[in-house]
Amino acid sequence: MTELMPAEGVFSLIWLLIALPLAGAVILLCAGRRTNSWGPYLGVLTVSASAVLGWVMLWEMLQVSPEQRTVEQNLYSWLVVGDFQADMAFQLDQLSMVFVLLITTVGALIHVYSIGYMSHDRDRRKFFGYLNLFVAAMLILVLANNYLLLYVGWEGVGLASYLLIGFWQYKPSAAAAAKKAFVINRVGDVGLSLAIMLMFVTFGTVSFEGVFGSADEASQGTLNAIGLLLLLAAAGKSAQFPLQAWLLDAMEGPTPVSALIHAATMVTAGVYLITRSNAIFDIAELAATAVIVVGVITVFMGAIIGSAKDDIKKSLAGSTMSQIGYMVAAVGLGPIGYVFGIFHLLTHGVFKAGLFLGAGSVMHGMNDNVNMRRYGALRTVMFITFITFAAGWLSILGIPPFSGFWSKDEIIHAAFEQGVVVGVLLVIAAGITGFYMTRMFIMTFLGKARWEEGVHPHESPKVMTIPLIILALGSTFLGMALLFWGDIESWLEPVVGFESKPAALSTAATIAISLTVVIMGAIVAYVMYWRRPVPIEEPRGSWLTRAAREELYGNQVNDALVVKPTYVAARATAVLDAKVVDGVVNGSAAFVGALSTRLRRYQTGFVRSYALSMVGGAVLVVLALVLVRAS
Amino acid sequence: MNPANYVLLSAVLFSIGAVGVLVRRNAIVVFMSVELMLNAANLAFVAFARMNGNLDGQTVAFFVMVVAAAEVVVGLAIIVTIFRTRRSASIDEPNLLKY
Q1: In A, which residues are within 8 Å of B95 by CB distance?
Q2: Over the range A310-346, which residues count as b (16 or more CB within 10 Å of their CB) and which as e?
Q3: Beta partners for A87?
Q4: A1 has pLDDT over 50
Q5: Are the Cβ atoms of B22 and A611 closer than 8 angstroms?
Q6: pTM of the full predicted structure?
């Protein structure tokens, strides 16, 4: 059993991991325009310092035995209300450690890349401030030792994501996309907050230690409810079905943002949440099954959307959805899958960041055109981007020995351990992955040039290509390094548990089948997009292509199910207010007004008529008295 | 003599006064009718005091006289003022205070 170690030595600096980028964000966002010249370098510096600190901590962590690798640092008591207590406390264990390294290292590379990519933007210090804010929030998310602090990070990354998607807010499409991402994420956040409340009601605490320690005492129904709410949260943040619609629009943001937030780190927060809550999902079978179902559905949705989009970034976004679907499905499998879900998350974080930055490099050379039908033959002019993109492409396809091969193959194998259905579905989706990524690669770099007139593609500056090269090296070797040298299974095992079951398919057979299917997908793409010329105007396509271009009608479904009914309800409420509520008020006022118009006619000004009414009244009173007396 | 006759007389006087107030236009006559009603009431008070054998009614009759005197003072002053400005003592003419 793992024990919580007090934070000593270098671990007493856990807070500094977060404080550095947070300080960077505060300085850059408060100091204003005068930081435009040196601001980007400050942004890079803070994140790089965090990354270095992270690697030192990894080194320290490797020095102690696996049972002693969970370090806790309690800064102060944050909220104490009656029985409720939440500390500003961080917990660094094997799971948080790999996340810290992914976030800070990939983050630092993307910061460096952004120096080149954003060099002409007049608000670049704001961009770097937001990026730093994002890194800080994401680190809070993965380092928190209780759900409430995790929620702070969760909202923080949501805010940073909103700000960065809408970074070019003068474009109406970017502003709308930012709003959409924020609103859809809110649906997921409601799930998370309800889950936290339910945890507090059930366990009396929201700390990881307390909740997981007594998870087996709660009823199956409660745990399933918590699990499903957490799944809702994860679906919102990780763009999983049915809350997937925001991710494709989120590509309106600058490309480094897409790489860092909407590919490598933030969108994987849902996977982290589920993996972190493994003690709950291990018991809550219904919730775990729901996780697998959601993951598998999204794998296919993302892959199909990615196959039809001509916008290189949106195609990559579909691919991100699909790959995160793999991770979600893997962590839904339980202890046989957690490790591989995280493993794939790490390799995907690196190779997808590389692919996105590659796409950004291509756009940089093509005057920000994103239409792949106007690319082609770019290998001749941007060789480094071509080679690094190829590494990412082979990695996501799962061609040995590239990173993606090891992680994706392990997930598929784990799926076969659980059952044949999920395994077969994931293999088929791998085939579609082979198709759309090869399609993208061929349309962009190979074949004939279909450039627009006046576009002169050129290689990006070194500040952009060096991060690409590092990420390409990661795409190539990280899988092997983590599996053989890093021994990811036994590294994560103390936190998430690991077990292996006899699979329906042997490892060799899994590899053979998935490789065959992937290569078949790639060959289809080769035949369709290399042997035949790519038309510049998009052809009409089959019904499936048209549906995929419309993002499988996700927006239409949202419109029909949520937006329209909300509009109708709002209009109905407005009518109700104007007609009924105002009607009662105005009506009674009008009634009293009309009545008094009539009644005031009786004020004639003639004294004698008043006297007559007085006499009449007095007679009536006397008569009434007499009658009452008499009866 | 039977005190009930005084009460009857009082009722007759009161009715005459009331009709006078309602039907006459001249402010002075209306005023006199009001006085008639007040004194009809006084007569009733005194008659009832006699019938019940205590002095309460007689006491109240004095109060009514005082009130009537005060009323005459104020009322006549108003009537005289109106007469001076309008050259008329009709109570139907000052009817400006209406809807």
Answers
A1: 604-606
A2: bbbbbbbbbbbbbbbbbbbbbbbbbbbbbbbbbbbbb
A3: A77
A4: no
A5: yes
A6: 0.79
